[in-house]
């Protein structure tokens, strides 16, 4: 079976997010004072071939832990859907 994974990687809440801070500051220049505390991460889409959803889930989790996210600085979440 083929599964599609939608992965979101975000900086940990306790860490400074320079990109997010710069965007937050720019919101004031655009008269969007209501928007604050912007956090910027990355979105990754990939496909995985696996016999079942549990195996696909395990493979995507391994990819996130070993390559796609830095667990010291980032957290991740993902969803799987059969294709």
UniProtKB/TrEMBL annotation:
Chief place of localization: cytoplasm
Substrates-to-products reaction catalysed: N(2)-formyl-N(1)-(5-phospho-beta-D-ribosyl)glycinamide + L-glutamine + ATP + H2O = 2-formamido-N(1)-(5-O-phospho-beta-D-ribosyl)acetamidine + L-glutamate + ADP + phosphate + H(+)
Single biological process term from Gene Ontology: 'de novo' IMP biosynthetic process
InterPro entries (alphabetical): PurS, PurS-like_sf
SUPFAM superfamilies: PurS-like (SSF82697)
A single GO molecular function term of this UniProt record: phosphoribosylformylglycinamidine synthase activity
Enzyme Commission code(s) on record: 6.3.5.3
Gene3D superfamilies on file: Phosphoribosylformylglycinamidine synthase subunit PurS (3.30.1280.10)
Keyword Cytoplasm assigned: yes
NCBIfam families, sorted: phosphoribosylformylglycinamidine synthase subunit PurS, PRK05974.1
Cited function: Part of the phosphoribosylformylglycinamidine synthase complex involved in the purines biosynthetic pathway. Catalyzes the ATP-dependent conversion of formylglycinamide ribonucleotide (FGAR) and glutamine to yield formylglycinamidine ribonucleotide (FGAM) and glutamate. The FGAM synthase complex is composed of three subunits. PurQ produces an ammonia molecule by converting glutamine to glutamate. PurL transfers the ammonia molecule to FGAR to form FGAM in an ATP-dependent manner.
Family: Belongs to the PurS family.
Subunit-structure text: Part of the FGAM synthase complex composed of 1 PurL, 1 PurQ and 2 PurS subunits.
Protein name: Phosphoribosylformylglycinamidine synthase subunit PurS
Organism: Luteibaculum oceani
């Amino acid at each position: 079976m083929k599964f599609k994974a939608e992965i979101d990687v975000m900086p940990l809440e306790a860490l400074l997010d320079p990109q997010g801070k710069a965007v937050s500051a720019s919101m004031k220049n655009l008269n969007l004072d209501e928007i604050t505390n912007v956090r910027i991460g990355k979105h990754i889409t990939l496909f995985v071939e696996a016999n079942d959803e549990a195996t696909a889930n395990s493979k995507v989790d391994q990819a996130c832990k070993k390559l796609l996210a830095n667990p010291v600085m980032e957290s991740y979440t993902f969803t799987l859907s059969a294709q």
